[in-house]
C-alpha cells in the first residue's frame, strides 16, 4: 500500500464520519418541524419495535419508560397534545457505526395560555443504536 492511498483513505473515512452528524441533523430537524405542526409520523417511522425511551422517575408526565413503537407513539401523542414546540440544537456521535451512540441536544418550550413561554424539558437525549434497534434515555429537567 502506498502512503498516498493510505492518506486518501484515511481522509475519506474522517470526512465521512464528520458528515454523519450533519446528515442526521438535517433528517431529524425536518422531522421535528413536522412534529411541531402536530405530525409525528416521520419521526415515529425512525424507531424500531424494540425502542425504549427512558425518563427519570419523578413527578412529571414523561416519567418512566416508553417501550416499543407503540410506546413512542403514545409519547408523541402526549407531546403534540401538550402543544410543545422543540428544536434540535446539536447532534454528536460516538462509537463504531454498527453500535453508534447518538447524543442530541433538544430544547423545547410551550406557549402558556395566559401568555409567556415555559421551557419544559431542558436537556439532552442519548440514543444507542444497535443494529436495527435503539434505546434512548431522556434527561429532563424543569427550567
Report on this model:
This protein has 143 residues and is an alpha+beta fold. It has a single domain (3-138), classed as Nuclear Transport Factor 2, Chain: A (Roll). It contains three helices and seven strands, in the order H-H-E-E-H-E-E-E-E-E. The chain has helices at residues 3-36, 41-44, 68-81, and strands spanning 52-55, 64-67, 85-94, 101-111, 117-118, 124-130, 133-138. Strands 1, 2, 3, 4, 5, 6 and 7 form a seven-stranded mixed sheet that branches. Strand 1 and strand 2 form a beta hairpin. The model is unreliable at 130-135 and 138-143 (pLDDT under 50).
Sheet/helix structural class = alpha+beta
Query: What's the mean pLDDT score?
Result: 76
CATH class bucket: Alpha Beta
Main sheet specs: 7 strands, mixed
Compute the number of structural domains: 1
Layout of helices and strands, plus pairs?
Layout lengths: L2 H34 L4 H4 L7 E4 L8 E4 H14 L3 E10 L6 E11 L5 E2 L5 E7 L2 E6 L5
Parallel strand pairs: 1-7
Antiparallel strand pairs: 1-2, 3-4, 4-5, 4-6, 6-7
Amino acid at each position: 500500500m502506498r502512503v498516498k492511498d493510505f492518506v486518501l483513505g484515511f481522509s475519506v473515512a474522517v470526512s465521512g464520519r464528520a458528515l454523519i452528524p450533519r446528515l442526521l441533523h438535517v433528517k431529524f430537524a425536518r422531522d421535528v418541524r413536522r412534529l411541531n405542526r402536530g405530525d409525528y409520523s416521520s419521526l415515529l417511522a425512525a424507531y424500531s419495535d424494540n425502542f425504549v425511551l427512558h425518563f427519570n422517575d419523578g413527578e412529571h408526565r414523561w416519567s418512566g419508560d416508553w417501550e416499543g413503537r407503540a410506546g413512542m407513539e403514545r409519547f408523541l401523542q402526549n407531546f403534540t397534545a401538550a402543544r410543545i414546540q422543540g428544536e434540535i440544537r446539536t447532534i454528536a456521535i460516538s462509537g463504531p457505526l454498527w453500535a453508534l451512540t447518538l447524543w442530541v441536544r433538544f430544547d423545547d418550550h410551550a406557549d402558556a395560555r395566559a401568555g409567556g413561554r415555559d421551557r419544559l424539558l431542558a436537556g439532552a437525549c442519548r440514543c444507542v443504536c444497535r443494529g436495527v434497534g435503539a434505546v434512548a434515555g431522556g434527561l429532563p429537567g424543569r427550567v
